[in-house]
Description:
The first copy, chain A, is of the alpha/beta class.
Amino acid sequence: MTYAKPLTMLLQALERLPGIGPRSAERIAFYLLRTSREEARQLAQAIVDVKERLRFCTLCFNLSEADRCPVCQDPARDPSIICVVEEPKDVLAIEKTGSFRGLYHVLLGAIAPLEGVGPELLKIDELLHRLSEGTVQEVIVATDADKDGEITAAHLSKLIRGKPIRLTRIASGIPVGSHLEYADQATLARALEGRRELF
Amino acid sequence: MTYAKPLTMLLQALERLPGIGPRSAERIAFYLLRTSREEARQLAQAIVDVKERLRFCTLCFNLSEADRCPVCQDPARDPSIICVVEEPKDVLAIEKTGSFRGLYHVLLGAIAPLEGVGPELLKIDELLHRLSEGTVQEVIVATDADKDGEITAAHLSKLIRGKPIRLTRIASGIPVGSHLEYADQATLARALEGRRELF
């Protein structure tokens, strides 16, 4: 005797999701078995909808319901500055600050040698293609400040250096509102290194 | 700017699942966005199928594709012994041992005072109803050996004691193949308490 076929199929499908092992898959499957038919239907529908209605912007790979994302479609944005991020959620985070008026380029990941993610799996060729068109004057590399993000930034730097484009990296340092004594050594070292003139 | 509607809906649906917080929901949602349409469709279909094709056995509350589960339908099983477990997966675990030939009763949970799960949420009335029919001669309480499982066992004992039915509890003790020195104190104390004659 094993689990009935529909349950086995669900467990297999759940275990393919990131961060879901056999235990969590079981927990979720039994939850779905017990919850209302309506809630289960909503989840299934949401999965289908997200695949059918959302895609990646063909220019910048941000999430979009149309061919071009709302940022790329906005004529008020400055096409001469491109901010390079790892994920669509990073676009959202930067948009929330309201302090960037250029366009984005989403790499859809970061170079992660330990996980076998090489540059060829990211949208780097597509970025170089955009740069080759001559409109872009500055590229801000806003990949994460972790190891993979830094490796990715270094890789981009190698590819873009030499082109007539200003290449910048967002600053690392003490988080705003945080105490110096709580900063880890690496952050503090970076903060010192990245010091600016005080006007 | 926020996430597009389909993504927001998916995140909300995912966050309702047990053990899935905002971070894991995001991770899963972006995974689904990037995976093949076929894999996403399979997951959605598996969720729908499990709700439409699986239900709980009307007699013992084991999972079943029919009104009665395969165990309850099997004429070779001994209806005079009922093994009470917390979850359908416990039925599977016991079936795998091949050493039980009676029927089951799945409580669909355990009494958990800290989580607000009282006996009224479990299939206890249904168990008492089965016992009242006079066929059952032994009830083996095989709830988990943790706190909730023991509370549940004690509660069942109070309800069944006094009826002309043998009431037993599965043994706690040193796991087979494991060393005495590695057993925790509670397990060791239980193992001593539950000692048997050596023939």
